[in-house]
Amino acid sequence: MQRIRSPEVPAHAGSIIHICGWVHAVRRLGSITFLIVRDGWGLVQVVIETQPGAAPMDPPGAESIVGVCGLVAANAAAPGGHEIQNPVITVIETAEAPAIALGKRQLGCGLATLLDQAVVLNRHPQRRALLRLASAAMEGFRATLRARHFTEIQTPKLVGTATEGGSEVFTVDYFGRPAYLAQSPQFYKQIMVGVFERVFEVGPVFRAEPSDTIRHLSEYVSMDVEFGFITDHGTVMELLREVIAAVIGGIAEQCGQDIDLLGLTMPTVPAAIPALHFTEAKEIAFQRTGMDARQEIDLAPQEERALGTWAVETHGSDFLFVTGYPMAKRPFYTHPDQTRPAYSNSFDLLFRGLELVTGGQRLHRHADYIAALTARGIDPAGFSAYLSAFRHGMPRHGGFAIGLERLVMQLAGVANIRLATAFPRDVGRLSP
Amino acid sequence: MQRIRSPEVPAHAGSIIHICGWVHAVRRLGSITFLIVRDGWGLVQVVIETQPGAAPMDPPGAESIVGVCGLVAANAAAPGGHEIQNPVITVIETAEAPAIALGKRQLGCGLATLLDQAVVLNRHPQRRALLRLASAAMEGFRATLRARHFTEIQTPKLVGTATEGGSEVFTVDYFGRPAYLAQSPQFYKQIMVGVFERVFEVGPVFRAEPSDTIRHLSEYVSMDVEFGFITDHGTVMELLREVIAAVIGGIAEQCGQDIDLLGLTMPTVPAAIPALHFTEAKEIAFQRTGMDARQEIDLAPQEERALGTWAVETHGSDFLFVTGYPMAKRPFYTHPDQTRPAYSNSFDLLFRGLELVTGGQRLHRHADYIAALTARGIDPAGFSAYLSAFRHGMPRHGGFAIGLERLVMQLAGVANIRLATAFPRDVGRLSP
C-alpha cells in the first residue's frame, strides 16, 4: 500500500492507510496506548487498544522508525483532527531514545544543550516550525523578484580582496596563498547590474567580527538584491517594501500550522513604512532613552529598540526605515545625499526594533569611486576589476541585503539569533 | 513616461515608448545610424535618420547609458522584429568603451582574456544567455522539489571537521583555530533527513583539489537532495530522473531566446534513462577505447566519453546511469550492495559523456557507521554529532548532488567549465 504523508491523513477518513515515521511519543491511558508518529510534515495519533485480559503491547522506543497501517477516524482531540485505529505496526528501525524527550510540548533545556544537541533536537516540532519559516522566506523572496524580472546569481565566496574592510574577514589558505571569505556579495552584485540590470542572490556570508552578542553570527544567510535605473535610495526602499510584504505574506500562506504552533503574531507591512532621517531618529531615541548619543554615527541596539517602540506607538508599524546614515559610518561605495553630503542615500530597515536590512544607493561613476577610495586612504589599484564595471558604463543603482536569521529571530520572537538557524556559527561554535 | 523593458517593445508597435540601457553597438549606413541599445533582457534597434544637408549625429560611445523615446515600428531585420524610429536620445552616463567590442556577434578573444575581463565581457549577449541557463536551472530544481514536499535548507559552510577526506579541503583561520570549508553539505543534509525527511539545498561547495583540468573548479554550486524512506538507490535514481527532466524542461521553457542565440540542441530526458552496472560499463569502455582499465576502481574521463557515445548510439540518450561503483572508491557513508558487497548502492549520472551527478543510498544504522569508519581507520569519535543522527533513529535514505556549472557546460557545449560560470575559481584564479 502506498505510503501517505501526515497532512494527507484527514482526506482519507474512513479508509485504511499506510504511514511511516518516527515514534514521537507514547502515552498510556488504561488499556489504550497512544502512539504519536512524526513524519517530515507533522504528527499522527495511532490508537492501540488492548483486548481485555491480554497483555498491553510493548510499544517501540522513542525515535524508532515505524510503519503503520490502519483505519482513519475523526477525533477532534488528535493532531489534524484524525487518528488511526486498529493499527498494524511494523518497527522498521530501532533507535536509542534521545536524552531529551522530543515528545514533550516544550524542549525544557538551556541554550547550550539545545545547540550542542541540535542534530536531534531540531526534530522537535517547535524547532521544525521555526526552521520552516526560513525556507518559506527564501521561497517568497525569490518568487517576488523573479516576477519583477530579476535574474538569480551565485557569486564567489572565495575572493582575492577583502570587500568592505580588513579586520572582519576570514582568511583561507588557498593553495598556499591567502584568500578571503566574502563578507557580502556586494562587489559582484553591483558588477552583475552591468550584466542583467536586476539581480538577486541567496547565499552564505561570513563575518569574522568577534562580537559575541545575541544578534551576531559568524556565518549567516544573506538575501541580496541589486538593480539599476533607480532614482535614488527611495526607489530601493519601495522595492524592499514590496519584497518584505511578499516574504511575510508567503510565510503566512505556507506556514499557517507553524505560526499557530509557535503562537506567533505575524506583522502587517504597511502600505507606506514610516521613515525617519538618521538625525530625527537620534532625537527620538534621545527623548525615549534619556541617553544622549546624538553625536554617535550609528544607532546603538537600545536606540533601535526605542525606535521600534516609537514606530508601533505612533504608526502602528512593526517596521521603520531610518535613512541618511552618516557617510562616515557607511562603506566607500555608498552614494552621498547631494544636498547634505555628510549624510548618505542609504537606509536601514528596523523590524521590531532590530536592524533587519541595510541598503541604499551606490556610487555609479568611476571618478567618484576613485575619489571615495582615495579620501579613505585606500589604493584604488586593489579594486581594479570591480572598478572596471564603473569605467565602462553603469546606471544609477542600489540594493539591499536582508539577514535571513534576523528575520526568523524577530518573526519567531526568539531571544537569541543562535536559535533562529539549525546549526549556528559564532566565535566559540563550529559544530555541530 | 514609464520606461519599458526590451522584451515588451513589440507589444507597443505604433506607440511612443521610453527605453533605457547601454549603447551596445553603433552602425552607420549612409545617412542612417543604427544605435543598438542593450538592457538587462535584450537588444533594441534605434534608427536615427539624418536630414539631407544636416551633419550626421555624433552617437554616444559604446557602453554609455542612454534613454530613448521614440515610435515602435515593425522591422523583421531588427532584434525582436521591431525598431524605434524618430528617437529622442538622452545620454545618461558616459563610458569608456571596452577594449573588446561587445557589439560583435562573437567575442573574438582567448580564454584568459575572457576570464580576466569577465566583469565587462559577461555583458556580451552570448555570455548572458549562457549565465541565464544557470539561473533557470536553479529555479527548475527548486520548483520541482518543493512540489514534491521537500524543504529547502541552508547548511553551514564553515565546519569543524573535514567531511569526506583531509587532503581536498580548504583551511580557514577561525578566530585563531582551524576551520574547514565544506566540500559538500553531505553530513548536514543527512542530519536534516531526520528533521524534515526530504530536503534540498543550492549553495557553494569548496574543493581544494589541485586538479587543473577543464572540468574542475575549486568553488562551484551544488544542487543537493537527500530524502528518507527509500527502497535503495533505485528510488534515488527515479527522483533524479524527474528532477533532471524538470530542470531541462524549465530551461527550455524560460530560455528559448538564449537557446536560439547559443544555437543549442536541448537534450531529451528519456522516460527510462539507460543504466549500466560499473562492471558492464568497464567492459563497454574497454571495447570502445581499446584501453584496458577494467581493474581501475573509477571511470577515467575518456571512458566516460566513450560511454556517452555508447548511450547515444545504442539508446539515443544523452544521459546514462552507471551504478554499483566499487565501495573502495566511494565515501564511508555509502551503502553497499548487499548481494555484492565490494560494490555499492551508488551511481553517477553521465550527461554527454561527463559525470554530472553523484548519488546513492547511504548507511542508516549507527552500528554500520562505526564499522565503516573503523574499517577505514578513522576514529568515529571525530564524527559524534553527525553519528548521533543515526543513533537516534534514521530511515533508509539517499540523495544526490548535481554540479550546476557542469550542467551548464554540457548544455551549452563549452569546452571548459571556467566558461560556464560568471567568475570561476581554480588553482590559479581568485579574481575577478
Write a brief structural summary.
The structure is a homodimer of 432-residue chains. The first copy, chain A, has helices at 111-116, 118-121, 125-147, 186-196, 233-254, 256-262, 278-289, 301-315, 366-375, 384-391, 404-412; strands at 16-29, 32-38, 43-49, 65-74, 82-93, 151-152, 158-159, 171-174, 177-181, 198-206, 219-228, 275-277, 319-323, 346-351, 354-362, 397-403.
Q: Structural class, from helix and strand content of chain A?
A: alpha+beta
- Measured by DSSP, the beta-strand proportion of chain A falls in 25-35%
User: Multimeric state of these chains?
Assistant: homodimer
What composes the largest sheet of chain A? 8 strands, mixed
- Tell me the helix content of chain A: 25-40%
| Total strands of chain A | 16
Please tally the helical runs of chain A, counting DSSP H or I stretches of 4 or more residues.
11
- Please tell me the overall pLDDT of chain A: 96
CATH topology of the largest domain in chain A: BirA Bifunctional Protein, domain 2
Strand numbers in spatial order across the main sheet of chain A = 6-10-11-16-15-14-13-12
